[in-house]
Design brief:
Layout: H1 2-11, E1 14-16, E2 28-30, H2 32-51, E3 56-58, E4 64-65, H3 67-72, H4 75-78, E5 80-85, E6 92-94, E7 111-114, E8 117-120, E9 130-133, H5 138-143, H6 145-152, E10 158-167, E11 182-192, H7 197-214, E12 222-227, E13 238-246, E14 249-260, H8 262-266, E15 292-294, E16 299-301, E17 304-311, H9 312-323, E18 324-328, E19 334-338, E20 347-353, H10 359-373, E21 379-382, H11 388-397, E22 402-406, H12 408-413, E23 415-420, E24 426-430, H13 434-443
Parallel strand pairs: 3-10, 20-21, 20-22
Antiparallel strand pairs: 1-2, 4-9, 5-6, 5-7, 8-9, 10-11, 11-17, 12-13, 13-14, 14-17, 15-16, 18-19, 22-23, 23-24
Helix pairs in contact: 2-9
Bound molecules: glycyl-adenosine-5'-phosphate (GAP).
Length: 444
């Protein structure tokens, strides 16, 4: 983990947030390469979950959330961690995460601590008008259920996908970007007919496992955990967690829950007319029935929900961990390489003029960069720093799949040299063939 954190800072993937003022715990900023990696991961999720299917719509809802949403969702009452204080040193921590220095010391009785961030809305700061920063992206998918059904005429089964920020006032943020206070989630709420939920739950677990493997995660490092007992969320009938071997241990990467009819039922008015199976708080505030018409018998049905919920930041950490390799070379030296899957690589290609600031070489390199950039397959850069060896090393370390060198043969014979990050092999190619080669490499 330490090596990874150091690389992330040195090469511009991830920085401690607010660093010049001493930092704020549990917050990180994504730098020039981190933002590309993160966007590529989110784009891959969106393509698979929305574009590649014909039964999912997208949504981008607000982060500030009406308190009633989080009252009826159960978060105001149950989204808590048990917190204790050490009477010896005054440290405050989760009951199940006692720091080494406090083991054996006298602790206070555990008290429930709500993890949601509250903020004032509007000009009056007397606590009468407040909202929460959403603790999960899911809730606004439920509150928009009727809007999406009415505007798209969707029938069951179908899903609504959303990617966005979530906020939790974690008592002990730790392990780099693994447990933070501000993070992103990629969530799908997939609405199904009651009775078909178990079957869909299984399908989604298989589907999500395959997706992570397609992102470059080694299948042997993911274990499925059937969540039971107190670890099962208040809304869930059954949850399977995809547990990944992070550098600090086996921990949750994504959870796939069967949320039953709890959420749509909880946010509905006239609940007594809806034959809701789960136990909900009586809702006197909602103005909508979140149900669909069953055309076979004209009754209203509250759909069950299967929810694959993945953390973007944990995904980025897992992908960095998988990609990070130190290889021994034939000459006895070592090279550090990030072997990202091509679609995730922050920079797709570096075009390198052999001689720094040579006008003709730089012009040719820029011309090729612009041509490749227009293919819209991701970021391409001109690397005008001169030293080819150093450039190869740098681009290995940041995971650039190909380096294209422009030299005097390019000017005279239209030939470029393409070096592959993984094999380190170099091949000479007519510059005219490069766009097709590049396109095929990233689209295959
Ligand atoms: N809507 C369901 C839900 O939010 P969760 O298991 O609490 O379920 C889903 O969160 C995913 O969000 C987790 O699997 C994890 O990847 C990510 N996540 C949760 N808390 C996080 C935190 N404090 N920091 C980073 N990622 C977090």
């Amino acid at each position: 983990m330490e090596e990874l954190v150091a690389l992330c800072k040195r090469r511009g993937f991830i920085f401690q947030s607010n660093e010049i003022y001493g930092g704020l715990q549990g917050l990180y900023d994504y730098g020039p390469l981190g933002v590309e990696l993160k966007n590529n991961l989110k784009q891959s999720w969106w393509s698979t979950m929305v574009y590649d299917r014909d039964d999912v719509e997208g949504l981008d809802a607000s982060i500030l959330t009406h308190p009633d949403v989080l009252k009826y969702s159960g978060h105001e009452d149950t989204f808590t961690d048990p917190l204790v204080d050490c009477k010896s040193c005054g440290l405050r921590f989760r009951e199940d995460q006692i720091p080494d220095q406090c083991i054996g010391e006298e602790l206070t009785e555990p008290r429930d601590f709500n993890l949601m961030f509250k903020t004032n809305v509007g000009p009056i700061d007397d606590g009468s008008s407040y909202a929460y920063l959403r603790p999960e992206t899911a809730q606004q998918i439920f509150t928009n259920f009727k809007n999406v059904v009415d505007s798209t005429s969707r029938a069951l089964p179908f899903g609504i996908a959303q990617i966005g920020k979530a906020f939790r006032n974690e008592i002990t943020p730790r392990n780099f970007i693994f447990r933070v206070r501000e993070f992103e989630q990629m969530e799908l709420e997939f609405f199904v007919k009651p009775g078909t939920d178990d079957e869909w739950h299984k399908k989604w677990v298989d589907n999500r496992l395959k997706w992570w493997i397609d992102q470059g995660i080694d299948a042997s490092k993911i274990k499925l955990l059937n969540v039971t007992g107190d670890d099962l969320s208040h809304y869930s009938k059954s949850t399977i967690d995809l547990m990944y071997e992070f550098p600090h241990g086996l921990e949750e990467l994504e959870g796939i829950a069967n949320r039953t009819d709890f959420d749509l039922g909880s946010h509905s008015k006239n609940q007594e007319q809806l034959n809701i199976k789960s136990t909900t708080i009586t809702n006197k505030s909602s103005n909508a029935k979140l149900a669909v018409q069953d055309i076979s018998d004209n009754t209203l049905v509250v759909p069950y929900v299967i929810e694959p919920s993945a953390g973007v930041d944990r995904g980025v950490l897992a992908i960095l961990n998988e990609a990070f390799k130190v290889e021994k070379l034939d000459d006895g030296k070592e090279r550090l390489v990030l072997s990202f899957k091509p679609h995730l690589a922050p920079i797709k290609a570096a075009v390198i003029p052999l001689k720094k600031n040579n006008e003709d070489l730089v012009a040719k390199a820029t011309e090729l960069k612009n041509l490749l950039q227009k293919l819209r397959l991701g970021r391409v850069v001109v690397e005008n720093t001169g030293n080819i060896g150093k450039n190869y090393r740098k681009h290995d370390e940041i995971g650039t799949p190909m380096c294209i060198t422009i030299d005097f043969d390019t000017l005279e014979k239209q030939l470029v040299t393409i070096r592959n990050r993984d094999t380190m092999e170099q091949e000479s190619m007519d510059i005219k063939l490069v766009p097709d080669y590049f396109r095929n490499y990233f689209l295959s």
